[in-house]
Amino acid sequence: MKPVIQAIRGDITRIHVDAIVNAANERLVGGGGVDGAIHRAGGPEIMAECDRIRRENGGCPAGQAVLTTAGKLPAKAVIHTVGPIWRNGSEGEAELLTSCYLNSLQLAKSHGYETIAFPNISTGVFGFPKDLAAKIAVRTVTGFNSPAIKKILFVCFDQENFTLYKELLNHE
Asked: Residue 170 contacts by C-beta under 8 Å, 6 or more apart in sequence?
């Protein structure tokens, strides 16, 4: 059975799902945008686990994903994935963004999580074009076949992304 896939407009730090995805940086040190919001709302437990991952593995390369506690967030866990910085599409950005979604879904599945919420990865300060990022995200998520995952949300902070995701999902 395919999961329910929806786009909603809102704040990912307030979403009640098993796992929320954080659009992190390679050093897992928090930052601006969704990354900073997740760290602020979740509290120091998230950063403590990011510090441990950084000590053990040096961080998280682009396209990969790691899991931490959700701290004070309403989710059970945070999956940190590092999206690519947009360099005019000439350095494998589309493939790396696809990997972000696939690796996050695999991590959720391997931990038995049934519900997951994604932000719009790489479309903020990393500069990935929103329309292309939305197409990659929707294509990747709708193509992921696992009966373990029951619901996938795209949580859009801004109206532009929300409109893009709604239109793409309506055509699926």
From this structure: none
The rounded mean pLDDT for the chain is 95
Question: Which residues does residue 79 pair with via DSSP β-bridges, in sequence order?
Answer: 21, 67
**Catalytic-residue membership of 158:** no
In the sheet that holds 19-24, the strands lie side by side as 4-9, 151-156, 115-118, 19-24, 77-82, 65-69
At residue 32 the predicted structure's pLDDT band, cuts being 50, 70 and 90, is confident
The three-state secondary structure class of 102 is helix
Distance of alpha carbon 76 from the chain centroid: 15
CA–CA–CA angle 135, 10, 34 (5° rounding): 75
Which of 35, 51, 131, 158 does the annotation list as catalytic?
35
